[in-house]
Design a protein that fits this description.
Blueprint (H helix, E strand, L loop, with lengths): L12 H11 L6 H11 L2 H14 L11 H13 L3 E3 L8 H4 L8 E5 L8 E6 L5 H16 L3 E4 L5 H8 L5 E4 L13 H10 L1 E4 L11 H11 L3 E5 L6 H11 L3 E5 L9 H8 L3 E2 L3 H12 L21 H10 L5 E2 H8 L3 H13 L3 E3 L4 E4 L1
Parallel strand pairs: 3-4, 3-7, 4-5, 5-6, 7-8, 8-9
Antiparallel strand pairs: 1-2, 2-6, 10-12, 11-12
Helix pairs in contact: 1-3, 1-4, 3-15, 6-7, 6-12, 9-10, 13-15
Length: 372
């Protein structure tokens, strides 16, 4: 069973430092990072333009730009605890995660390298799981591991830890919401140590980053993005696991749900997923049969440099003001902004990027944006 594409050549040390500086600078997320690289050709040129672009977006002063010394210190500190910072397409970057349109530009990875490139199935669910839910999560994970899949999850209490524990021997991957040295919850540090012997851990956050509530949806995007599909076991309404399922659907991943009693609120979300078209799962073969055709298709990594949507930094102040006036605290789609403003997609994307670099724009799931 394979899930690999040929790795791209290694970044040079200088390129890795420049890319780390760019993604660690204020208001630069993965999507903005890729747009900047595509437009300016490399991270160093993008770094030089950040202050000017932030001013154009209305920032009173430009945000912090990560220094070369800070980047070198992070790489050295990561190396000390066995963490490598790898780019999409490099040998230990999970290939399906690399194929997203907004993969982390540099991903902190550690553990058994081969585990990170094998086909993955995500198992997520309630932190406050029932005994039956925990038992089924362990059994499903074990069966998927025996079939050659790597189980990926978020190291959380409940369903996540049950899936990890069942696949420590066959290989499992933990996706961290904080830095590699800030494990959450703290009582799972021993579990992570066991995972790393034959499995792996990944994070897009810098060392020392303590996870906050808003970091968990970002983590969930990695869980779904690295996998062929996501199995949800016990999820109440408004559960974080349902966010993972939504992201999986947006990323073109398979969504599976385990049915539960209508009387158990922990099953309300999973039962709703089934009503909405998620594949019902009662055994591992339900998952394996669904993903088998996907495994037979090669993963294609698009070249990002020069292959992103174009930007136009010669926008007129009036055009910028028109777009800003259409934005507010309620999320709106890019397509709606283009239609309502009557401006080109290139101009709208450029203004949104400038606003983001100024710290004035928030991006939401499904391509929605709002003004901060």
């Amino acid at each position: 069973m394979h899930d690999r594409t040929p790795p791209t050549p290694h970044l040079t040390d200088a390129e890795r430092i420049d890319r780390l500086r760019l993604i660690r600078s204020d208001n630069v997320g993965p999507r903005t990072f890729n747009s900047l690289i595509s437009h300016f050709g490399n991270a160093r040129a993008a770094l030089e333009r950040l202050p000017d672009l932030a001013r154009r977006g209305g920032a009173a002063r430009s945000g912090r730009i990560c220094s070369e010394e800070e980047a070198r210190a992070e790489i050295a500190a990561a190396k000390k605890i066995g963490v490598s910072l790898v780019a999409p397409g490099e040998a230990t970057y999970p290939p399906r995660l690399a194929a997203l349109d907004d993969p982390p530009p540099l991903l902190g990875v550690r553990g058994a390298p081969e585990t990170l490139t094998r086909p993955m199935i995500a198992i997520v669910g309630s932190r406050n799981a029932s005994g039956a839910g925990l038992k089924f999560a362990g059994q499903l994970a074990r069966d998927l591991g025996d079939a050659g899949f790597v189980v990926i999850s978020g190291l959380a209490r409940g369903i996540d830890q049950a899936a990890h524990r069942a696949t420590v021997q066959s290989g499992t991957v933990a996706v961290l919401a904080g830095g590699h040295d800030r494990i959450y919850p703290p009582e799972h540090e021993d579990l992570l140590t066991a995972i790393l012997e034959r499995g792996g851990a990944i994070s897009e956050m810098p060392l020392g980053h303590v996870p906050r509530a808003r970091d968990f949806p970002r983590r969930n995007r990695l869980i779904s993005g690295a996998s062929l599909g996501v199995v949800v076991i016990e999820a109440a309404h408004r559960s974080g696991s349902l966010i993972t399922a939504r992201m999986a659907a947006e990323q073109g991943r398979e969504v599976f749900a385990v049915p539960g009693s209508p009387l158990d609120p922990r099953a309300a979300g999973t039962n709703d997923l089934i009503k909405q078209g998620a594949a019902l799962v009662t055994e591992a073969s339900d998952v394996i049969n669904a993903v088998q055709p996907i495994l037979e298709r090669p993963i294609v990594l698009e070249a990002r440099e020069g292959n992103d949507e174009p930007l136009d930094f010669d926008t007129d102040p009036g055009e910028r003001e028109c777009i800003v006036s259409l934005l507010g605290p309620s999320p709106v789609s890019l397509d709606d902004l283009i239609r309502m403003s009557g401006l080109s997609a290139t101009i709208v994307r450029t203004v949104l990027l400038e606003l983001e670099l100024a710290g004035r724009l928030e991006r939401h799931g499904g391509g929605l944006v709002s003004l901060i």
